[in-house]
Amino acid sequence: MCGIVGYIGSKNAVDLLINGLESLEYRGYDSAGIAVFDGEKINVKKEKGRLSGLRELIDKNPVSGKLGIGHTRWATHGVPSVKNSHPHTNSDGSIAVVHNGIIENHEALKDFLRENGYTFKSETDTEVIPLLIDYYYDGDLLSAVRKTAEKLDGSYAIGVIASAEPDKLVAVRKDSPLIVGLTDNGNFIASDIPAILSETRDVYLLNDGEFVTLTKDNVFVCDIDANPIKKEIYKVEFSAQASQKDGYDHFMMKEIHEQPQAIRNTLRGRLDKNLGLTLDNIEFSDKIQKLYIVACGTAYHAGLVGKKAIEKLAKLPCEVCLASEFRYGEPLINDSTAVLVVSQSGETADTLAVLRMAKKLGNTVYAITNVVGSSVAREADYVFYTYAGPEIAVASTKAYTTQLAAFYLFAVSLAEKRGTVSENKLDDIKNQLLGMDAVIEKALTRDAEVKALAEKIAKEHDIYFLGRGLDYFIALEASLKLKEISYIHSDAYASGELKHGPIALIEDGTVVISICTDPEISNKLNSNVKEVTARGAVTVGFTSCLSDTSAYSEVIELPQIDPLLAPLPAIIPLQLLAYYVCTAKGYDVDKPRNLAKSVTVE
Ligand code: F6R
Q1: What is the pTM of this model?
Q2: How far is the CA of 133 from the centre of ligand 1 (A)?
């Protein structure tokens, strides 16, 4: 959460910073700000709210310069306000800092700084950083930043400029992402690759504890003791175009429509048309008797489906855990367990913490992630990239479906290795996976019906989702999608649980959406739907298999497919439903309130 960018070079930094921040706005949009050295002093411009506000401010009072840093904020300490916006400075404004992360010992550091005569202008944890740098500064900015970093507990990606050393930009990371972009006209730092993609594809992926000093034509990387570190240039393969809207009104809609291609990308090079399957260089030891699947949010929902697929095909017991619970839950990690983390961004703080904890305890860690070179990707023992391309909309869509595809490949591969299912059955699953892009295309054709339904239900205050088995997991994801962008209260229930409490919520007109993709349990679900209909619910079915739809006010047909694979196409119309409810209400689809794409703090 929060995005930072910085530039030093021969071009005007202001445009580059603002463009960079635009690509990083998905990381937070409570406020935005820049600090630019204009040849004499550092000018700071900041505004509460979206980047457009900062743009207007700069249009009215232009600044320019060839060295600068920028920030887009997701508030943690201190309300969204100009005062709490970054960049933060020391008292005379000669040092400016942008920060992504949380300084956990900020109270103790504030006491220390107050004792040394410093005062604070904001409520943020970040403000201790420019003041500490000021405290340690003796003419060498890198050295002051190193001494400051030694005092900081928590997570940080920090960019620093100082008017006394206008030929450099210093940065460091620990537990928050940071990359360096290299060009012939100067160098960049950024929280994420899209921020610099219009300028370069040559980047350094920084590791925790690496300090970097950028000048206009050089980049020096070192550790906390100033020992030089040699970095390899990483060539970014996806294009700047991949992070544009391509004629869609919103990234979310673009990303929903990219799913057939995204699935092809996940399967490419792994599953061929002769049904040969290779999982990159991933190895599973025979010693593994249990797999912990750990993730947050949508990735956790993908893990729930993944567990079913692995248990059903490979007969390997799995436990799915929320990363935030797992890390404090004393999990029974031992020689016969392994951990599989799932994370689109590869930077989610809780997921990353679990990865590190599991490694420390000696477990093999597998990762399913989308962002190449992310922290999760670099630290896991085995990485499976989903190759979905950049996901910009806060509400995850193609990341989820490609994670499901990844899990199916894992499940089939493990089943082959363990000999737990007949070859015919596995070939059938593989064939269906190869045809999955077309099935998703079919699911996308429900667009008009779903839009009409969305317009009917957009004024509801509460919407419930029901399902059994895998359909319950689809319901969980559908409900999350709806609530996060439409702000309608929504919950998903395993339909068998209704009578144990939730049915008390049903009254005349309550909208209940049920999902049914498994003919073997469709009758059970049908009975539950009848029970809520009898109590006045308006019921909508998203189904591929109901013979009796009499209890439903409306039915949206889902494509036919093996029930084990059904979550993949079934979620598509439900993603569209969330999208259209949100647009019907006139909310910001890609940047829902209070959320950020990458949750890099606990
Ligand atoms: C919801 C959503 C979030 C993420 C969660 C984990 O649409 O996007 O719930 O799934 O924050 O993020 P990653 O996968 O980046 O670890």
Answers
A1: 0.85
A2: 34
